[in-house]
Design goal:
CATH superfamily: monomeric porin ompg
Radius of gyration: 25 Å
Strand order of the largest sheet: 1-2-3-6-7-8-9-12-13-15-16-17-18-19
CATH topology: Porin
Oligomer: single chain
Number of strands: 19
Structural class: mainly beta
Mean pLDDT: 89
Shape: elongated
Distance between the termini: 35 Å
Order of helices and strands: HEEEEEEEEEEHEEEEEEEEE
Length: 350
Amino acid sequence: MGGAYAGLADEVSAGYWNPAGLRGLSYPEISYMHVERFAGAVSFDYGGVAMPITARSTVGVSVFRSGVNDIVNTLSAWNPDRGQPLPGYESRITRFSAADWALFVSYSRQVSDRLSVGVNFKGIRRSIGDFASAWGYSMDASARYKTGSYRFGAVIRDVTTMLQSWSVNPDAFKVNCTNPIDGEPFDACLNDDGSLIEDNAARYQAVFDQRIPQGGTALVLPVARLGSGAVWPVGDGHALTAGLDVDVAVDGQRAFVPNIGDVSFHPRLGMAFRYAGVVELRGGIQRLQIGDPIGVDFTPSVGAGLDLEQVSVDFSFGDFAGLVAEDLGFSYRISAQLRLEQPGLERPEE
């Protein structure tokens, strides 16, 4: 649905979209999702569990991993004197991953028959192989309002502002200065007097004409997501769902994004049709961009879901860059959800 779900989410995935929506659970739920983006170059995995604990309260835990795997490290495979790979360089190449991990702990509370509120406590771990890593902590605050067929949601992500502190491991940038052919140091690793450069940071700069990166901090500013939606019954047992979300950011994005000064807007629009409560077809539009020379550009997505008793399976297809850039491929998303509708696990009554 193009990600237009902040006002509609009322199951376990609400831990991500809008934690206030967890109030919609009647039984514990477990969910898993896997995404392959750009022909598998980027992978994304999500796992979540949520359960009602009282008549008005629900808790949930969500874990996320987004990463690029099998990145080649050629530090030990390069001949700096010749400016080309060493003989048998394949055996000298190592591989690493750049990955982001996130843990959300969610809580939702029903305030009235129509209104619920929620909060996420978030921890973020980012790493680039053994080269660098960062930690960050933050909170989300949200609300969800339901009246008749209509739903409204509001989420302030990183309401406390997230400070990510990066640290760099200089030892991971170790440079091979011994020529495997003759066992002698490369000329690029020698001082003017012919002695070997001992300090690895100076050696790295001499060989690659670059400095080893330094640690630092990155600030993630709050983003407000405003969501609305409606679910209308159609015919006998069918339903039509529509959603419209807008992210409001103050990060100064002006290139290709609708904006008023430093305030940028990221709209999402989606619709779904559910047949007999079993099969659902969905479509949406996200990442709207406006500017020269691209004009108006947006990213569509389509998907389908199958709901069988306590198990749901969903598949979606998006990021249509592959239509114009074959090297980028497409993105696929598949997910499954289990509802534990067992005696004794139902939400307690007031």
